[in-house]
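Note to self: keep these together.
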Amino acid sequence: MPTFIHLPDPLASLYVDRFTDRRHLWLVFRATNIYRLVLASLLLAAFALDEQSRLFGKQDPRLFLGASLAYLTLAVIAIAGCYWRRPHLMVQAHGQMLVDLTVLTVIINASGGLSSSLNSLLIAAVAANGILLPMISALLAAAMGFFLLIGSWLVDRWHYAELLAGLERGPGGWEGFWTQINNTTDDWVRLGVLGIELFAAAGLTHALAERARRGEALARQRTWELLEVAELNQGIIRHLQNGVVVVDALQQIQLMNDTAREWLGALDAVPGSGLEQVSLPLARGLKRWLREGGAEVFPFRPAEHRPELIPRFTRLSGRQAANVLILLEDSDQTAMQLQQIKLAALGRLTAGIAHEIRNPLTAISHAAQLLEESTSGSASDRRLAQIAHDNVRRANRIISDVLDLARRDRVKPERLELVPWLELFREEFLRGLDHPAPEWRQSVEAADLVILFDPHQLRQILWN
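Structure:
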């Protein structure tokens, strides 16, 4: 039997979409935590291997080492939380955002502050958080990172002013602090550039991630729609009265509906079966059609007890241009349909002729009625008028029967007392004869016999 795709109801599909979205977000969050783990490991490895130049942690090695170890530990805990999925994803994501901003600011400060080459790590962290967090949270992360950098720089300027005061090379306290701030215009430029980069990274990554999510949702929706259309097409093909077979370039069956299976006697055929294994005459007809480029097809009979089939071959278009669609028609059904069409046309023609005949009959009936009602006419004239009138009624009744047959009206049975009805029909029948009346015999067992029958059809049966 053909396999059909079962599609869930809209609520179930909506649930699946939301579940898929949550699962995708958890995977992204897990990937960012693995990135944090790798980053912390690389920072610790660089710190351990570079003891002489101290490229990382040159300003405060102990603070750098402690912050890197804390970052590594928190990354491991975050990865465990990804698998446990407790607490909620957004709670973990916001918590990890705070960890990134705080720890990376400390690491940057321990490595030289604004002059350090690790400032890009903070930009990368804000960008990574922008993928998962809402726009407001992403911009808030950029603002917090910017203010943490400013705070770290101000603290660094304060300590530097105190250091100069201890060496008696400048004023200390607030005066030295303001002096350091006024003398470091380059740092203000660096802070401004870093702030712009932070906000740009947050906005762009969030916009790109949101666009990717919308594209994925649209693709998933289109996939569901295509599956629905495919299921609908398969359902239509399955219930077609004609047989449908689709074969590829190797004449292997790709699709076959139930009608074709029954007619060809291939109830066990599966997709991928060879057409020759299912029906050798059909396979030969297809080869001939392909070889001669649309040659005339001939009917064939799969077996003695099977109907005679008329194959119609059509090459598909598009990506399935190599496939061929085979429509199988039952020749008996086709002939019956043609016969029904002819009978319907004949019925319409008969109805038209009957209507045309009825017009002169109406005029004859009217003239006979006037002649019958005339007081100057003799009894024989009135008798002739009565005969004409009765025959007109008979002709009208025949026309009505023909029209009823053309319209195929429903039978309307009535309760008929058979003996009186037959007497009336006998008189009507004898009046309509132009030659001497034949011998009439009727025999009804019960004089009060009542039957349930359509009087028009009974009259038509007796007249015929």
